[in-house]
Amino acid sequence: MTANLRIKDMASGDRPRERLVSAGADALKTAELIAILLGTGTRGASAVAVAESMIDKYKSLNALARAPLDELRRTKGIGHAKAVALKSAFTLAQRMARELWTEPPVLDCPERIADLLREDNRFFEVEHFQVLLLNTRRRLIRAERISQGTLDTILVHPREVFKLAIGANASAIVLVHNHPSGDPTPSEADIKVTRDLIRAGQLLKIEVLDHIILGRRTSDRPHDYASLRELGYFYA
């Protein structure tokens, strides 16, 4: 297939849309699925070729989903409408992941907490601090975003955290924030904030169960999160 071949010029059986109908979505390559979103009219280039060039540039769907809209619009063969279509598709995937929880989840281990918030935090380019409000059975009441900071700094005051917990009649909370760098290793500031909030919770009889830092998996790091409780920072 040449670079200037458009989807409508392909043999019928080779067009991504027709292949999806005949063989199912799972049979299509990632570039073909993206090409369906891009459609035709990619300035003379095949939508599949444009999709393949984007995958080659960003290396992963995660990186592509995190790309700013303005950056996508400047990509050869994309433009405004197709960049918006891509952003819409990735946002829908985020929302679908949230809908998979058919009832308030039990958040009694770091893995479940990471599973709940992973998609919401995946595209953040600065740190966002969140608190999960839990009932006596450790089921989620709701998640609240407290504040956001810079690439590697965030400010949190106990008053903001526990005002929400008291208002929701929560018996326990879980602290969560992301590291845009991808490395979930806690900083000294993360440890200090955690211990300050633990002490405040003890006074108010609202237990701080854990502080989860979300990052990204690598070949050397099998988990994309760190639990400060598991790392021993909840103990004197």
Protein described:
The chain has 236 residues and is of the alpha+beta class. The protein has two domains: 7-98, Orthogonal Bundle (DNA polymerase, domain 1); 103-227, 3-Layer(aba) Sandwich (Cytidine Deaminase, domain 2), CATH 3.40.140. The chain is built from nine helices and five strands; from the N terminus they run H-H-H-H-H-H-H-E-E-H-E-H-E-E. Strands 2-1-3-4-5 form a five-stranded mixed β-sheet, with helices on both faces. The longest helix is centred in the middle third of the chain and has 21 residues, at 79-99. Residues 1-5 have low confidence and may be disordered.
The residue fraction in helices comes out at: 40-55%
Q: Give the CATH architecture of the largest domain.
A: 3-Layer(aba) Sandwich
**Rounded Rg:** 22 Å
Tally of discrete structural domains: 2
Query: What is the helix tally?
Result: 9
The geometry reads as elongated
CATH class of the largest domain: Alpha Beta
Indicate the CATH topology of the largest domain: Cytidine Deaminase, domain 2
Structural class: alpha+beta
Keywords:
236 residues, alpha+beta, DNA polymerase, domain 1, Cytidine Deaminase, domain 2, five-stranded mixed sheet, 42% helix
Architecture blueprint of SSEs:
Blueprint lengths: L15 H8 L6 H9 L8 H12 L2 H6 L2 H5 L5 H21 L10 H12 L6 E7 L5 E9 L9 H10 L4 E7 L9 H17 L2 E8 L10 E3 L9
